[in-house]
């Protein structure tokens, strides 16, 4: 990877002031929760228990976990189709996320959305959006409503490097900056828009540099280092909340698995994937915690066991949950109180 | 010229009064779109409202249809009641992704959590010699989409009254204003207010043939009905008003009375709203018919610039009269 050398924008790194050990263990637990949940999804998909498109976040967990540290329950989130991690760390109960994978009525979208459309409005989680770039205008609108109503909220808007090529990206960067709206743009740059490498799709591959041209602060961040992400996200969210207008984080990350469940991965070298696996965000944090004497093997094993139990329980609950009756097929097309 | 209970007005002024009333009654309402503020709206609908309500609520946007329509959806989800204006239906295609993939689907794919109480207004239709990128009637495309409602105010009372009712709707409503109607003059009750947005209306009662239309072709259908009357053919004119949902009951009741139907639609014939209405009549009132259903639509050509070609492309009273005579035998 020669990418880093070409970059004009220096990456944000972790704050020198280390957070408490307990907090760091919690970051690890959340990343593991996403990883183990998705590994279970792979198993369930292979067994044909869940279907549709399932886009795995494996490798990118530090982004969702780090950004989420900067958000309050009153903030809003607009996400993408690769959103299991965003949803889980937001606190959407795992049982309802797993039930959504099964298309059951107990799912967080009553089974109507599936993997790509997780919603929980009570937690201000406005969905997985499966049109690349399609969530950006929604985030701008939510932020506009907050501004007009005097709410001191931040709207975090996730999207990938692929979205940067969409016209909606340009329109929304401009509008958010023009109107000074409280949006935290979180660009998850995993270097591939499905199978198209960043340099094959973007004339300017420094996405933070691009965002900066709209007149908003934009920082590249090491998206494999959860503490670097948390540090950058806290600074950015604080500035947004203080009335500093939109901010942009380019979170440089990598997906270890296929674009969707399976693809032959003809578009990238196995060696490249292996190289990135050396920067696995979970292994990096584990290493730090071990080196600092903050995590014993027993503690880690106990953490893992607890996650396995939680995931198995969510699978059992989803299997047992009722399916929507076919008679209700056309509910939720219009609101019940629709005139 | 006005009496105590009636005022003389135009379609444009009625729309403006509707926006003003909505802004006054509900502080969650705001108007957003290209040139709605300082310019006064490209068709002058919002002229003066910036001075009255200020730039936060009469909000000029950049030429970013997808962003500002999507922002309207987001703001609606977050508790506002936006009115988004798109200059013309042709430009709405730049926002079609947001209308189709977000506004129309969010409620369903969120399992009932995310309703979108948004109103989108736009101009539609031809007749002003503005050629093939500003003149089409694409509202029929939008009627294909479950999850949205589609309105076409043609009468002054609907220009005045549909907006407020649409804003009370929990789901997205598209309002199509035919460009030829803005200067329509007439009288309106001084206390004219909200109207229903579900039913079709009989604008002229008749017994021999049903002319079923909406929007900019309503005046043409009424004119055709007068000409037919001189020939002893008593035409009923139905104004659909709501294009989605369609008021099947009013259509079928009319066909049951007249036994003949001519559908007048400024959209292109193929895959048109007229085709949908025709299919419904065939499905629901086939045995009432004394003649095949006829359609008068726009010629299947991108709208040409010269006046004589544009006139030839569009439904005109003469063509409606000819079609009605044919079905009347």
Structural features:
heterodimer, A: 339 residues, alpha/beta, Rossmann fold, six-stranded parallel beta sheet, two-stranded antiparallel sheet, 11% strand, disordered N terminus, B: 329 residues, 2 domains, seven-stranded mixed beta sheet, five-stranded mixed beta sheet, 13 helices, 22% strand
Strand and helix layout:
The complex is a heterodimer of chains A (about 350) and B (about 325).
Chain A: H1 3-6, H2 21-46, H3 61-68, E1 76-80, H4 84-90, H5 94-101, E2 125-129, H6 136-148, E3 155-160, H7 167-178, E4 183-189, E5 192-193, E6 196-197, H8 198-201, H9 207-212, E7 218-222, H10 226-244, E8 247-252, H11 270-277, H12 281-291, H13 297-320
Parallel strand pairs in A: 1-2, 1-3, 3-4, 4-8, 7-8
Antiparallel strand pairs in A: 5-6
Helix pairs in contact in A: 2-3, 2-4, 2-12, 2-13, 3-4, 3-10, 5-13
Chain B: E1 6-10, H1 11-25, E2 29-33, H2 49-53, E3 58-60, H3 65-77, E4 81-88, H4 89-92, H5 96-103, H6 106-109, E5 119-124, H7 139-142, E6 149-151, H8 156-168, E7 173-178, E8 185-189, E9 201-204, E10 209-213, H9 218-230, E11 235-239, E12 242-244, H10 248-258, E13 261-268, H11 273-285, E14 294-298, H12 307-313, H13 317-328
Parallel strand pairs in B: 2-3, 2-4, 4-5, 5-7, 6-7, 10-11, 10-13, 13-14
Antiparallel strand pairs in B: 1-8, 6-12, 9-11
Envelope shape of chain B: globular
Given the helix and strand composition of chain A, which structural class is it? alpha/beta
CATH topology of chain A: Rossmann fold
Distance between the termini of chain B: 45 Å
SS element count, helices of chain B? 13
Average pLDDT, all residues of chain A: 94
Unreliably modeled segments of chain B = none
Largest interface, Cβ cutoff 8 Å: A-B, 47 and 46 residues
CATH topology of the largest domain in chain B: Rossmann fold
Residue share in β-strands of chain A: 5-15%
Strand content of chain B: 15-25%
Q: How many E-type strands of chain A?
A: 8
Average per-residue pLDDT of chain B, rounded, comes to 97
What is the fourth-level CATH superfamily of the largest domain in chain B?
Thiamin diphosphate (ThDP)-binding fold, Pyr/PP domains
Strand order of the largest sheet of chain B: 3-2-4-5-7-6-12
Largest sheet of chain B: 7 strands, mixed
- The CATH homologous superfamily name of chain A equals Thiamin diphosphate (ThDP)-binding fold, Pyr/PP domains
| Fraction of residues in helix of chain A | 40-55%
